[in-house]
Q: What sequence folds into this?
């Protein structure tokens, strides 16, 4: 028997830090049923005054760089200091077992049983934009539930790195010593967008290579355009197997927050993110209203084929889509 | 007395390489009058079979790096080899004297009087997306008119670099020796997207610093993820005052074209660009149809203010815009 939770029960439960209610609220936000969409929107509005007080940290890097192990170590360190840590992720790939929390719980076995930690897998969906938007709302729900550190992990290859930048206050890029082919698959441009570079797995025989890589990245970052927020991107060597190595990360993030709060860029970045989400949200809503029916989608596919084979110009293809909408009495274009 | 040019006169004139007709066609494409929009769309379709045979080269870098002087030297070198060179630009800033070709002609005095060169300033407009889209169509018109090298210069600071990547086959990033503060204003991430880095103004007393910078950039680029197209980004020192220095650029671009043509990435990149323009074009068309009226714009401004001050969630703001459209009988949402 499914018990209906009222809007105020959701709100009170979340603010009281009730895990079960939080989980259900996230499921509500991720729902695509029209009625639940409306309910979710109301809920987000109600909890809005309780949001924004966390630090949102993106963790990115190629598969195999050790993101999960890092998050487990880092998360445990933070919870041991009394912090409440939520772990969310963005995974636009279809390969992963969606909706199952089992994968994450297995990957982060110790963190998942911590009272002060909350792990939730990536929202499902086919479009990165939609997935990222849901993750964004999940961040707000976790903040309202009292989590003060939100870790957002990118899972897919090459697509989700830009989205994480749009969601986070601070982006940590994990790298391996060696570079070159190990970097295959990471989105080009992300290195210049990272707020910190950490070379992971620098232990045992890797120490020498790690230190060489550190120096090389420091020199390379020096050639990048300076950040508007005056932050100088640090490079560190860490080992997720060694708690000491990890312990340098949190103080650096605190320094970042202090600097960017004092010069106004912390708040400015969040405001710009919100306005950008607003514009993207409108575009998505218009597009999903007008384009997500079968006949328009099939028309778009045909036009894409015609563009690819040089049979029609992009301009005419766009006109053709718009004419199609105009001729449909429903849309009144 | 204004003489009307028919659609077939446009087409024949452009294909015959008639400069006056080409200029008028570009003015037509840049027009925002509904009837002319339709005419422009037809024209682009008609010339489509004659397009695509040029190499589209983006030239980017901070103001003061010497883009115009470089383009003049490079352009003159190409025309002296019998190539036909068109110079277009993207300038989303409002500071420049729009519609006047005077600025460009003054900046590139010798190139502007070359028979085989054609210089056209940036289309006017407030939105980068719209400006870039018009530049894109201008590329097609110039190609149909027989220009085999299209140089696209970014003029604004920090915004147009990404757009140029979406328009071009090859992006040349001009840098100065020294880096650091000189990089202020360039869009972060562009260094990783460049297909070649050229350190400009390496002459006289700058030679030593130029060579040090070259080595540093070479090492830094080595740390970037490899390109899908297998291209290894070269770093060169050049001097726009010295024709010899410039002469290394064209053979490198030829090498790039040869490699990427043979592995299919040249064509693949253009196809992906076209599909991306198609999707952006639909979004822009929907948005301009539904959102570009005064009352919706003022509603959006109010909502942006409410978002910035934390009074409303992004989700609710999006819903509010969509509800507004739904209630208007005109749209039939």
A:
């Amino acid at each position: 028997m499914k018990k209906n939770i009222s809007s105020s029960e959701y709100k009170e439960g979340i603010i009281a830090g009730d895990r079960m209610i939080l989980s259900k609220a996230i499921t509500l936000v991720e729902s695509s049923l029209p009625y639940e969409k409306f309910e979710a929107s109301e809920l987000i509005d109600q909890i809005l005054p309780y949001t924004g007080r966390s630090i949102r940290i993106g963790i990115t890097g190629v598969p195999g760089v050790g993101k999960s192990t890092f998050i487990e170590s880092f998360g445990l360190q933070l919870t041991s200091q009394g912090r409440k840590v939520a772990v969310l992720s963005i995974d636009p790939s279809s390969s992963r077992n969606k909706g199952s929390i089992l994968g994450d719980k297995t990957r982060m076995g110790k963190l998942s049983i911590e009272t002060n930690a909350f792990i939730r897998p990536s929202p499902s969906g086919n479009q990165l934009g939609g997935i990222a938007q849901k993750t964004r709302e999940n961040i707000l729900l976790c903040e309202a539930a009292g989590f003060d550190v939100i870790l957002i992990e990118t899972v897919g290859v090459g697509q989700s790195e830009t989205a994480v930048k749009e969601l986070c206050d601070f982006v940590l890029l994990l790298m391996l010593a060696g570079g070159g082919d190990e970097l295959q698959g990471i989105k080009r441009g992300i290195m210049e967008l990272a707020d910190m570079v950490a070379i992971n797995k620098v232990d045992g025989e890797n120490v020498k290579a790690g230190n060489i890589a550190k120096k090389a990245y420091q020199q390379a970052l020096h050639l990048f355009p300076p950040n508007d927020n005056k932050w100088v991107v640090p490079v560190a060597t860490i080992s997720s197997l060694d708690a000491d190595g990890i312990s340098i990360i949190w103080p650096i993030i605190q320094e970042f927050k202090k600097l960017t709060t004092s010069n106004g860029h912390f708040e400015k970045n969040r405001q710009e993110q919100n306005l950008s989400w607003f514009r993207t949200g409108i575009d998505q809503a218009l597009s999903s209203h007008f384009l997500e029916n079968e006949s328009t989608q099939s028309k778009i596919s045909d036009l894409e084929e015609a563009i690819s084979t040089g049979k029609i110009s992009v301009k005419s293809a766009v006109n053709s889509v718009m004419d199609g909408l105009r001729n449909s009495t429903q849309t009144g274009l």
